[in-house]
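Sample log: protein-glutamate O-methyltransferase.
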Amino acid sequence: MPESTARRTIIDPMTDSTFFQFSQFIQTELGIKMPPTKKVMLQARLHKRLWKLGLDSFDAYYEYVFSPDGREHELPQMINVVTTNKTDFFREPNHFDFLVEHVLPKMIKRHGLEKRFTLWCAGSSSGEEPYSLAMVLHNYSEQVHGFKFFILATDISTKVLDKAKLGIYDEESAEPIPVIFRQKYLLRSKERDKGLVRVSPEIRSFVRFRRLNLIKSDFGLRETVDIIFCRNVIIYFNRETQEHVINKLYHHLSPGGYLFTGHSETLNGHSVPLKAVAHTVYQKEF
Ligand SMILES: C[S@@+](CC[C@H](N)C(=O)[O-])C[C@H]1O[C@@H](n2cnc3c(N)ncnc32)[C@H](O)[C@@H]1O
């Protein structure tokens, strides 16, 4: 369906039964909780898509999005507006300190410097988190010669992945990056008044972005990883889905590997065989 340039049509409020159909899909296929209290928010987010397509009802949108053509062209757009992608460079900075001061020295002591350490940023949004990691790890590799790493960054939203691959950000959003890293790892736009910066090609080369739905049974990852950052993602899932996802992440961790979750996402009370080694940092047994 081509996107509409026509003037905005009046759209009737979403009925409870249509909301139920959308919420069922969002909870089952994306894992994201969608209780009736979220109806106003969901309507507001989907409105943009109805306007773009020139549709005048949520029923018509539902019918289109789950048609064969809609599944191919519109469903990714719907997922883009339904997901919450808030992120920052160096968000929850003590995780980065803990990584450098405790996790990496322990891992190097055990494995030596022969191997390349692999990290997975699951729910990486627009790239600020994996690029923060790449800056920290590159800087570390200058102090610990021979340290090698690679970062896989995944998200379900194609919109944030496209932004992440470009690696271009507002100067303002780069402020949390330590000054020394800004000088080393950011390029300023030639047109100064645009106020944009770009992550250096070297830092970008350490990160590979890929679309991946954490709810799907097969992640398609061939090898286990040493460290997983899955922060501020499972907070949007219900308890059962959280446990399901954490157990799957556990299976993708190498023995002795670490999982970092968001500061409000403790695994207390969840039945997962991971040991807490710091607040919201967990380790798999050897
Ligand atoms: C709030 S952002 C967190 C970004 C980053 N990890 C951080 O802490 O700043 C949550 C991200 O999880 C992604 N997400 C939500 N459900 C997902 C799913 N089922 N599979 C993969 N990613 C998902 C969203 O698209 C969003 O970009």
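Observation: Residues 94-284 form a domain with the Rossmann fold fold (CATH 3.40.50.150).
Observation: The pocket of S-adenosylmethionine is lined by residues 30-32, 83-87, 91, 123-125, 129, 155-157, 160, 212-215, 231-233, 236, 262 (CB under 6 Å).
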